[in-house]
Amino acid sequence: MSTTDRDQKIVDEIASHYREILRLVGEDPNREGLLKTPMRAAKAIYAITSGYRQNPEEIASQAIFEHAGSRIVIVKDIEFYSMCEHHILPFFGKIAVGYLPKGKMIGLSKLARIVDAFARRLQVQERLTAQICHLLTDTLPNEGVIVACEAGHLCMKMRGVEKQESSTVTFDYTGKFETDAEMRKEFLSFINNN
Questions:
Q1: Given 8, 87, 134, 150, which residue is catalytic?
Q2: Exactly one of 84, 123, 131, 149 is catalytic; which is it?
Q3: Quick check: helix, strand or coil at residue 19?
Q4: Is 155 a catalytic residue?
Q5: CB–CB of 74/190 below 8 Å?
Q6: What is the dihedral of CA 122, 128, 130, 134, to 10 degrees?
Q7: Of these residues, 17, 86, 126, 178, which one is catalytic?
Q8: Choosing from 20, 79, 85, 178, which is the catalytic residue?
Q9: Nearest to 152 by CA among 85, 44, 88, 80
Q10: Alpha-carbon distance 5 to 13, whole Å?
Q11: pLDDT tens digits, the chain, 194 residues: what are they?
Q12: Is the pTM of this model over 0.70?
């Protein structure tokens, strides 16, 4: 069975479950407006969770090059979309990644791909931030990695406490960022400078 056939079989099975969910919440899945909804929802959730079918380590290792001279490399405002593993509701925001090169650097687009590979899974923001930081620490020669993430969570906005303006900020860092508060401060000043 080809990957495409396997993917379609999985999507078909997910669609059958969405059809049953529609029925259980009190809808008629045979109603005109809902006839294609189970398949649309199945395709959407399969795409949203594509990170399970990606290997972040492989993504990182495909684009590591000789270092060309920056003391710190920062890529900020990497937008991401994820799903809260507790309620299967979206959370989304921006991530900033910084690292201190040690003889090597990573292709900039790979940082965004790594973010997507981890974000497009059922997630919690704290783990997402740590996974990105520790993957880069382990795969890229460096003297320190720092990752900052700010996100809004629909599980807090649509349900529960319903706080519309709330956002969550998480950080993780390794190496020199752990011991040098000035370096962390410098990173934060760069990412907060609009």
A1: 87
A2: 84
A3: helix
A4: yes
A5: yes
A6: 90
A7: 86
A8: 85
A9: 80
A10: 12
A11: 777 999 999 999 999 999 999 999 999 999 999 999 999 999 999 999 999 999 999 999 999 999 878 899 999 999 999 999 999 999 999 999 999 999 999 999 999 999 999 999 999 999 999 999 999 999 999 999 999 999 998 888 787 777 777 889 999 999 999 999 999 999 999 998 85
A12: yes
- pLDDT of 124-168, one tens digit each? 999 999 999 999 999 999 999 999 999 998 888 787 777 777 889
Catalytic residue among 67, 134, 155, 186: 155
Residue 153 annotated to the active site: yes
Any catalytic annotation for residue 67? no
Residue with tokens 């390794």: 174
Q: Which residues, including other chains, have CB under 8 Å from residue 106's CB and lie 6 or more apart?
A: 60, 63, 64, 65, 99, 136, 140
Q: Find out whether 130 and 172 touch, Cβ atoms under 8 Å.
A: yes
- Active-site residue 123, yes or no? no
